[in-house]
């Protein structure tokens, strides 16, 4: 295969997108019809997801997730998203998956992962895009639930589930209470990442590094509030899965020019660009690349380096990594 970073459309890679958070409203509406579910309150008059703040975002997200009830629903979701991503020039993606959300819709872990894997294989066959899955525990469901996910994932290894992570409401639960889950996942060889520095400050990022032993952080942008921590991130080569559009939509920053991604990058932090929950935040990976290039004056070479950083930090085998470079 021709080296994807060589020429042609700007190659992109995404390390941080929640698969349920990537559900196009049209697909959700179709599933509501299929299962005869009333989705009043889910969408606004423009047809987009209707939420006002982080808590109501999480509630709408949970409600939409409950409409994915069969493996084929999830296959359609991963295939649809990855095809769209490939059309934007993406060569690699890691889909964050949530076994607890699937269980909430009545689906076993095996059926959930099986459906998603089928969609991933179909998208790869159609477009060439490579993808892996990162299973997450939901922080506000509690430490026991997160540990249960770690045991589920390590007890039934799947070749495309290569990472373990922590998402949900960062305002709840200290990282120390999730240390056991992360130890289980790490000892099984899974790549580790955790949301931190989104709705809590630098101390949350430092605690994720110290207690969860992660080398990647979901968001991490509020590290900017502590210069010593920024230095530590740069010195230790921690990779930040930055999601600027998500941070703007959720009100962390008032405009992209005030977002710290450029300062973090200039301070030597390893950063990647990601969409998090694209239709919820009215963004796409392509838009994230384009708007950062415009606002921060990043060149094509800068963007290619960001993609390269994502490929270097990807939770995939070295053979796949080499083929993507
Ligand atoms: N789950 C889905 N999107 C999330 C976000 N931005 N932060 C934490 N948990 C999430
Ligand atoms: Zn996220």
From TrEMBL:
Molecular function via GO: adenine deaminase activity; zinc ion binding
Annotated active site: 198 (proton donor)
InterPro entries: A_deaminase_dom (IPR001365), ADE (IPR028892), Ado/ade_deaminase (IPR006330), Metal_Hydrolase (IPR032466)
Keyword Hydrolase: yes
Cofactor(s) the record lists: Zn(2+)
Catalytic activity: adenine + H2O + H(+) = hypoxanthine + NH4(+)
Origin superkingdom: Bacteria
Site (described: Important for catalytic activity): 219
Residues noted as binding Zn(2+) in the record, renumbered to the chain: 16, 18, 195, 276
Domain Adenosine deaminase: 11-325
EC number from the UniProt entry: 3.5.4.2
BP terms from Gene Ontology: adenine catabolic process; hypoxanthine salvage; nucleotide metabolic process
Function: Catalyzes the hydrolytic deamination of adenine to hypoxanthine. Plays an important role in the purine salvage pathway and in nitrogen catabolism.
Family designation: Belongs to the metallo-dependent hydrolases superfamily. Adenosine and AMP deaminases family. Adenine deaminase type 2 subfamily.
Record NCBIfam families: aden_deam, PRK09358.1-3
Name of the protein: Adenine deaminase
């Amino acid at each position: 295969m021709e080296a994807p970073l060589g020429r042609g459309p700007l190659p992109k890679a995404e390390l941080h997108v929640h698969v349920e958070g990537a559900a196009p409203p049209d697909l959700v509406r179709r599933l509501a019809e299929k299962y005869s579910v009333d989705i009043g309150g889910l969408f606004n008059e423009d047809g987009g997801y209707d939420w006002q703040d982080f808590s109501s975002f999480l509630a709408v997200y949970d409600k939409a997730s409950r409409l994915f009830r069969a493996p084929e629903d999830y296959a359609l979701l991963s295939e649809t998203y990855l095809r769209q991503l490939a059309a934007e020039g993406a060569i690699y993606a890691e889909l964050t998956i949530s076994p607890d959300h699937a269980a909430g819709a009545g689906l076993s872990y095996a059926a959930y992962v099986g459906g998603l894997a089928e969609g991933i294989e179909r998208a790869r066959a159609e477009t060439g895009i490579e993808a892996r899955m990162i299973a997450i525990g939901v922080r506000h469901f509690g430490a026991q639930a997160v540990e249960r996910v770690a045991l589920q994932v390590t007890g039934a290894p799947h070749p495309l589930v290569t990472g373990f992570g922590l998402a949900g409401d960062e305002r709840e639960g200290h990282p120390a209470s999730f240390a056991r889950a992360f130890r289980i996942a790490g000892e099984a060889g899974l790549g580790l990442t955790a949301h931190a520095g989104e709705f809590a400050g630098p101390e949350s990022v430092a605690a994720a590094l110290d207690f969860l032993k992660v080398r990647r952080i979901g968001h991490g942008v509020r590290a900017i509030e502590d210069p010593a921590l920024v230095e530590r991130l740069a010195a230790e080569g921690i990779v930040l899965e930055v999601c600027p559009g998500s941070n703007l939509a959720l009100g962390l920053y008032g405009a992209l020019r005030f977002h710290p991604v450029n300062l973090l990058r200039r301070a030597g932090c390893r950063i990647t660009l990601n969409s998090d929950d694209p239709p919820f935040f009215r963004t796409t990976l392509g838009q994230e690349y384009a708007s950062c290039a415009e606002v921060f004056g990043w060149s094509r070479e800068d963007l290619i380096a960001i993609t390269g950083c994502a490929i270097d930090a990807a939770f995939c085998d070295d053979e796949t990594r080499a083929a993507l470079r």
